[in-house]
Specification:
Layout: H1 9-12, H2 15-19, H3 22-29, H4 40-45, E1 54-58, H5 64-71, E2 76-81, H6 84-93, E3 98-101, E4 114-120, H7 129-139, E5 140-151, H8 157-171, H9 190-195, E6 199-211, H10 215-221, H11 225-228, H12 238-256, E7 259-271
Parallel strand pairs: 1-2, 1-4, 2-3, 4-5
Antiparallel strand pairs: 5-7, 6-7
């Protein structure tokens, strides 16, 4: 798969990427419509003992994992993010956390320092995944645990397919597969990548989105060019593609009563 914005360090930290929290929050908002209500962040953290733990969140985003760890009585909270905007958001969200601007490929932290290391939905953004895995292993204590989170191949398959169908409709071309950068580190290959440094167990979770109105689905789709404009959507008039996609979403809601899609994710429980 060709490299694109999803691993470009400058692109990742611009406002359209992760320079602000808005695109990430827009994507997260669609999960309020899960058919089986699962509070995903606490579910991930339940795979480790958080009470009294020293916790590092690599790729901390706007601090939602660290906030949950604080509620679970973690003793020390450290967040790290490549984006200064995200690091600032975490400081605002979790005042008790020490937050660092840094790169997962070269963590500016001493070895064997943390009981729990988190890497949620972020390793697919790292250019050198093995280097980042080695760093996760270096900073976790010998009896500690690293929790890495990834998606499966079925995740939002309907949304991805309809986006590509809308683009084909607008451009007058044949529909192409949606080749996701998240496939770089996914449910299918993440265990092997992590297995170079850890003993790994995987716990999958599957669910469905049932969304009664188009806006949350369209808002999610509207963030995709931030990561794919130089690969999937190069040369396409995105407003026209988005309008065609919204029409397709509305047609499905009119026909089925809701937009229905699959979610598929997992947590890799990694021990040294």
């Amino acid at each position: 798969m060709a490299e694109h914005l999803a691993t470009d360090r400058e692109a990742l930290t611009r406002p359209q990427g992760y320079g602000t929290t808005a695109p990430l929050r827009a994507r997260a908002s669609v999960y309020a419509f899960l058919e089986r209500k699962v509070d995903f962040v606490p579910w991930v953290l339940d795979h480790a003992e958080m009470d009294g733990a020293e916790v590092l969140d690599v790729g901390c985003g706007y601090g939602h994992y660290l906030a949950a760890a604080a509620r679970d009585s973690a003793r020390r909270l450290v967040g790290l993010d490549l984006s200064i905007g995200m690091a600032t958001a975490t400081r605002d969200e979790v005042p008790a956390a020490a937050v660092i601007n840094g790169d997962a490929q070269a963590l500016p932290l001493a070895g064997a320092t943390f009981d729990v290391v988190l890497a949620p939905h972020m390793l697919y953004h790292v250019p050198d995944i093995p280097a980042a895995v080695a760093e996760l292993r270096r900073v976790v204590r010998r009896n500690g645990v690293t929790l890495a989170v990834a998606n499966g191949s079925a995740h939002l398959r309907q949304l991805r397919g309809e986006v590509m169908a809308a683009m084909a409709e607008v451009t007058g071309t044949e529909p192409r597969p949606f080749e996701s950068f998240t496939d770089r580190f996914s449910m299918s290959n993440g265990g092997e990548l992590l297995g170079a440094a850890f003993r790994v167990a995987v716990d999958p979770v599957r669910n469905r989105l049932v969304v009664p109105e188009p806006d949350p689905v369209v808002a999610y789709a509207d963030t995709l060019p931030n990561m794919y404009s130089d690969s999937l959507f190069a040369g396409a008039a995105w407003p026209d593609v988005l309008a065609a996609f919204e029409q397709r979403v509305q047609e499905r809601i009119d026909r089925d009563g809701a937009w229905v899609d699959t979610t598929e994710s997992c947590v890799f429980v990694c021990r040294p």
